[in-house]
Amino acid sequence: MDTLAQKVNRILEGDHAEIIAKVKEVLSRPEFAYENPYDYQNFRETVLKWCKILADEGMGSIGYPEAYGGKGDLHRYFTVMETISYHDLSLVIKFGVQFGLWGMSVLNLGTEKHHQKYMKAIGSLELPGSFAMTETSHGSNVRGIRTTATYHHENQSFTVHTPVEGARKTYIGNAALHAQAATVFAKLIIGEEDYGVCAFIVPLRDKDGTILPGVRIEDCGMKMGLNGVDNGRIWFDQVNIPKENLLDRFVQIDEHGNFQTPIPNRGRRFFTMLGTLVGGRIGIPKSALSAAKTGLTIAIKYANHRRQFGPKDGKEVLILDYQTHQKRLLPLLAKAYALHFSLEKLARGFVSHQGQPEEMIRYEGLAAGLKAYATWNTTKTLQECREACGGKGFLSENRIGILKNDSDIYTTFEGDNTVLMLLVAKSRLTHYKETYKDLDFSDVVNYVVNEAIINITELNPITIRDTSDSHLLDFEFYMDAFTYRENSILKSAARRVKSYLSDGMDAFDAFNRCSNHFINLGKSYVERIVLRDFIEAIGKIEDTAVKASLTRLCQLYALSTIEENKGWYLEQDYIVGNKSKAIRNMSVQIGKEVRKDALDLVNAFQIPDSCLSAPIAFSALG
Amino acid sequence: MDTLAQKVNRILEGDHAEIIAKVKEVLSRPEFAYENPYDYQNFRETVLKWCKILADEGMGSIGYPEAYGGKGDLHRYFTVMETISYHDLSLVIKFGVQFGLWGMSVLNLGTEKHHQKYMKAIGSLELPGSFAMTETSHGSNVRGIRTTATYHHENQSFTVHTPVEGARKTYIGNAALHAQAATVFAKLIIGEEDYGVCAFIVPLRDKDGTILPGVRIEDCGMKMGLNGVDNGRIWFDQVNIPKENLLDRFVQIDEHGNFQTPIPNRGRRFFTMLGTLVGGRIGIPKSALSAAKTGLTIAIKYANHRRQFGPKDGKEVLILDYQTHQKRLLPLLAKAYALHFSLEKLARGFVSHQGQPEEMIRYEGLAAGLKAYATWNTTKTLQECREACGGKGFLSENRIGILKNDSDIYTTFEGDNTVLMLLVAKSRLTHYKETYKDLDFSDVVNYVVNEAIINITELNPITIRDTSDSHLLDFEFYMDAFTYRENSILKSAARRVKSYLSDGMDAFDAFNRCSNHFINLGKSYVERIVLRDFIEAIGKIEDTAVKASLTRLCQLYALSTIEENKGWYLEQDYIVGNKSKAIRNMSVQIGKEVRKDALDLVNAFQIPDSCLSAPIAFSALG
After folding, report:
1. CATH 1.10.540.10 given to domain B4-123
2. Mean pLDDT of successive 10-residue segments in chain B (622 residues)?
3. Which own/partner pairs from B573-578 qualify as long-range (CB within 8 Å, at least 24 positions apart)?
4. What's the burial of A523, exposed, middle or buried (CB within 10 Å: 0-12/13-18/19+)?
């Protein structure tokens, strides 16, 4: 008979069990033995070698069209990233830079001629490349970048140039050592006119790795983590590239040297281009979640084994049986499960709606929000796991430390989390705009405030006092609570912005003055979606034991999220004080139930034992 | 005229300006140039060399009596630790192991003969040593350690022995390479009798560094941080030491081979011995605070320089002018100041009440609480600072990453924070026991519950609704709110324990069932003390501008702490929903005011520029 862990694992892996097994098989080969990540010059070469093996196994190109050697299976590409992340995060980032950022930018921003020329070489890692967007002075504000690509009609070429120090490209993965070319984002200049940010393929090194004339590259050096990735800085000094190197899906230059585009609105064009790159915001939170799952597996296994203190003259007690320890780890286990289902649904939906721009806008907002929520959660989870393992958590033989260091930057790259949450909030407000296309931002705000388009439940004086077990364990109560919070914050945020705008405040200032409020809006939206997806996933489970176990996890996720926000709920009179206390007590009680399954629930992740500790790597240092 | 930063610095440094300047002068010498901390075999030797220089300058022995080459100035010893922490945390921990743990254990647990023989050699670092308490199976639960020291009256000696694998000493600083001796904690066995945990001086290596017979030492290897400290594991195989090596201040063996002690109660004796070592719980939070101050200096300077986004066609905006950025960093700045004054007061009080056992018990509780509160705060602060610096925060040239890694274990060593907070809570309950000595634990609980000894303010229906600026900015409001919270939680925690005990539950289980509650009790106590000390410090300031600036910081500390706990306050009807919102708005408003002084307030820490980045160390790697 199957164990609970095995049954849950089947739910988690679904129809991707085969690709997961395949990736694990590759990663279990002797070439993938861990080594010292701080000996970074060697480690970078190792990680390149690891990427090459994965490419040879067809993992890099799996998301590309079959015509270019791929399998046309973007969803499995995300699963590959997720699985690689159990082994090493430098590996998944180097892999993601090459096959995701570099490859997908050529695929999504380029056209047939680029695909023909580059995609096979990218997918096989014959042509290592970079994604050169971020500049020293402009990270979050990509529209402000200052690298230029000036068109010369006379010889059908562009000159790519770094006009000021702040326009150097920075933190560029693959750049310090291996990239032979890059997708470079630069402002397209034709004549005197600036046509805004476009993307170009710029060669950086020849086949022998010699840096090409006009290109200067500096190593970003050692970092807190991800030291297997060679991040670098790039300057261009009047570098010439042929006209065909413009990635011309959304911008073209015609035979007369005139600018052409299917999307004349500059802002819309910019966001459409960026929108095609949103896949990174699915791969990254999935990778982050794998790191959180690894940390939880280590910490929960340890807590189920380690004893300390106990009743007088009795046996010492397992630390997982301490109320405080349960409170630290089990809500995070619940959240990891919640995020698993939500990210899976996001990936599936994103992949199946490719080529539907209206749908894509929705997925962009969702991906931004989940990326921020999942990566912050990983930082928090690994911190708790480190502390929950005490001194053991600090030794390098325990992989929590390296996971913490490697994943720390996840909250910054692929979009700074705070900036993303603000973006999500704005998209929640302006999603009404999609329906009423002629409205501008302040019209939308007015509309949201004045019309009854946001459905806010009437508070029921009995429900706000209901502390019965059946109510506190009811999915409907949770959905109502999460939805109520999201809608109320949305309405009140809109109201505040409107009042500032009415006072004549500049839109930027008005938005800034409400930005703490908007962060809460973003979070409340994401939390509602995550809960919805978790409940939906549970609804599909047939096995009684699995369903009961995941139901308790979902209850713990919902209750602990409401508890975290109890200040807000009490402020709004959504619950009374006694109910707030009852929620806390119920959360402790459900935690005790979840504790019974905890070992099964981490075993269900089926993270290879070799990924839970790294004794070899570090004895090799001694 | 002095700047605000200079004036505030004088308040912070007080009469320790001279020793701080002296330490900084030493640390600014070329020998202290940064190097790669991950090249740990070299780095460990460098850190030893650094310690030696500090010892030669008299910094190591500064807290020892003048008779043994010291200055008898324990308070300045803490200030030395705090200042060294700006430079490097491996250094301060190696320093603390040698001069604090090793030296102070000999000083406080030993007697005249030990002081004569060892103290000068320890203070000069001629005799490097360790503090071998923690065992693999027993970290937090020190009374459970299993190393034995068996007395042999016939030849006036002890045999020190590791009877089982779980009794090996572990994570022992200085042990892997440098210690020539250690204070070893072991159960004293005389005949068949086990007299509980005592401390012994056990030689580990000879002058040449050769490990002595019967001793086995293993390197703990690479760690997440603090790689300049050589942590090791130690096993003893029937190691013989002379009788005089028993640190015999609290336990003696008389000339007939009989056990003697001035404190016959075994539990009290154990805690008295540990109590003399409480100094570490003052040095560690002070060191942690220095790391937080360094992170805040880096992040706030960066935020006051970095621009991103802005109004249409306007200049980009400093990121410190974003509401979200202010909310992330400025309450942490306020908390750093709050902790500064509280830790200073703790150090001063602890030093001036040496030799007064009743007072010491109070300081032990306070030190445990502040250690946990300050070190958790450092972890949180450095995390926010890393994220607030974006990609820059991830590069090793920025010291935030190394500070994060080095300080992460601070929440575990010198007592796991969760265990400490539970200890604090217990000490708050049983502090009534001191007054009523004949009560046992459950009597105390009954007493607390039944008698009106805890003063809980009557809630005033006007005050709970008062949203006037003058009220929200009033120190009296804050003190009342913090005190009310502490006392209410104390009373309700006692009530809960009592009800479990009345139901016949075992005391251990009853306490465990309330432990989330007790954690809150510990925190609320510490927060009340920290606020009280901050207000008291501000009361002594004469300069108007400084007083106004620190008053705003204190307001921000109090308001953001109340905001963090608003769920609790609302549950208890201490405030109504509207007041909760008003507190949040006032906190944002005061944050904007604090932002104006923010640069001065970090400059007032006067952290050397060389401690804010480490470009040399890491270019040397390239």
Report:
1. yes
2. 95 98 97 91 96 98 97 97 98 98 97 98 98 96 96 98 98 98 98 97 97 97 95 98 98 97 93 90 98 98 96 92 98 98 97 88 94 98 97 90 97 97 90 58 73 77 97 98 96 91 91 95 98 98 98 98 98 97 98 98 97 62 40
3. B573/A577, B573/B459, B573/B464, B574/B459, B574/B464, B574/B481, B574/B484, B574/B485, B575/B464, B576/B464, B576/B465, B577/A570, B577/A571, B577/A572, B577/A573, B578/B465, B578/B467
4. buried
Instruction: Give the domain A131-265 fold.
Output: Butyryl-CoA Dehydrogenase, subunit A; domain 2 (2.40.110)
What pairs with residue A216 in β-bridges?
A235
Whole-model pTM: value is 0.97
Q: Measured between beta carbons, which residues in chain B are less than 8 angstroms from residue A303?
A: none
Fold: same for A4-123 and A131-265: no
Give A316 to chain B, closest Cα distance, Å.
10
**Which is nearest to B101 in space by CA: B163, B153, B169?**
B169
- d(Cα B551, Cα B539) in Å, to the nearest integer? 9
Q: How far apart are CA A581 and CA A467, in angstroms?
A: 9
The listed CATH number (1.10.10.10, 2.40.100.10, 2.40.110.10, 2.40.128.270) that belongs to domain B129-266:
2.40.110.10
Count of residues for chain B?
622
**ipTM, interface predicted TM-score of the complex:** 0.96
* Record: contact A171-B391, CB cut-off 8 A: yes
As a whole number of angstroms, the distance between CA A525 and CA A454 comes to 13
Cβ–Cβ < 8 Å for A227, A201: no
Instruction: Output the CA–CA distances (angstroms, integers) from residue B445 to A32, B248, B284, in the order listed.
Output: 58, 36, 32
Query: Are the C-beta atoms of A359 and A365 separated by less than 8 Å?
Result: no
Q: Hey, of A44, A305, A412, A499, which one would you mutate to test binding to chain B, going by the most B CBs within 10 A of its CB?
A: A412
- In chain B, what are the domain boundaries? 4-123, 129-266, 280-603
DSSP B411: G
Q: Determine, for residues B391 and A619 on separate chains, whether the beta-carbon distance falls below 8 Å.
A: no
Overall fold of domain B280-603: Butyryl-CoA Dehydrogenase, subunit A; domain 3 (1.20.140)
